[in-house]
């Protein structure tokens, strides 16, 4: 079975509860659409678990990018990461060795920005944010947005702006994509929903695990059956 999760945000214990709930096994695959770290208190536990499991595939989110840049001593505005609840991750990183930091950087740099899969003749593209309206889309001959190339164009222009974009939730009705997009990042709680949101163009599976005081929860969906689970 193929399972999807997103925006776990350092909640390793609840993540493990979800794996037990769905009876995740060695023959299954789990795709996580970014932001396994940040905000919670078990960030490195989450990261190392994903690094060591061969059937778990992590897609880069903005918090993974911030951690990468932080470890690389790049020109990252740390105050912005702290503002977006990255302080717990920073605190955990103070206790790791240089060897571990290099291992983390290598893993984070190699994370994909999207993954394409096809199930029951439906072409999906899994990514963290989905769409950046500041970048002109690449349009196919049939008038649909070439989702893959448009994402690549956005990332090449500004990786951070792509990963923090919420634009997919506000695009005009006339825009059509050549893939069905599945995203996380911007929680469904912001739209008054405490469950996975689906429409004809995209699905949002971030149900606000990091804002549980506002009714958020951790969600998971099976792409084969479309069954949903919540913890």
UniProtKB/TrEMBL annotation:
SUPFAM superfamilies: Metallo-dependent phosphatases (SSF56300)
Family annotation (Pfam families): Metallophos
InterPro entries recorded: Ap4A_hydrolase, Calcineurin-like_PHP, Metallo-depent_PP-like
Domain Calcineurin-like phosphoesterase stretches: 2-190
Alphabetic keyword roster: Hydrolase
Gene3D superfamilies: 3.60.21.10
Enzyme class: hydrolase
Molecular-function GO term, any one: protein serine/threonine phosphatase activity
EC id: 3.1.3.16
Superkingdom of this protein's organism: Bacteria
UniProt protein name: Serine/threonine protein phosphatase 1
Species classification: Bacteria, Bacillati, Bacillota, Clostridia, Peptostreptococcales
């Amino acid at each position: 079975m193929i399972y999807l999760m997103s925006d776990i945000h350092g909640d390793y214990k609840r993540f493990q509860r979800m794996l037990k709930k769905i009876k995740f096994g060695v023959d299954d695959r789990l795709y996580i659409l970014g932001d396994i770290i940040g905000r919670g208190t078990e960030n490195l536990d989450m990261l190392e678990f994903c690094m060591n499991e061969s059937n778990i595939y992590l897609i880069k989110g903005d918090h993974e990018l911030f951690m990468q840049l932080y470890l690389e001593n790049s020109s990252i505005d740390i105050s912005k990461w702290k503002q977006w609840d990255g302080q717990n991750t920073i605190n955990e990183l103070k206790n790791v060795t240089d060897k571990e930091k290099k291992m983390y950087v290598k893993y984070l740099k190699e994370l994909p920005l999207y993954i394409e899969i096809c199930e029951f003749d439906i072409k999906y593209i899994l990514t963290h944010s989905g769409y950046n309206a500041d970048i002109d889309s690449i349009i196919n001959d049939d008038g649909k947005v070439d989702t893959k190339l448009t994402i690549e164009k956005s990332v090449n222009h500004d990786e951070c702006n792509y990963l923090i974009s919420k634009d997919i939730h506000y695009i005009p009705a006339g825009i059509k994509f050549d893939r069905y997009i599945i995203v996380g990042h911007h929680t469904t709680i912001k739209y008054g929903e405490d469950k996975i949101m689906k429409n004809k163009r995209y699905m949002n599976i971030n149900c606000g695990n990091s804002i549980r005081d506002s009714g958020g929860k951790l969600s998971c969906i099976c792409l084969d059956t479309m069954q949903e689970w919540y913890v």
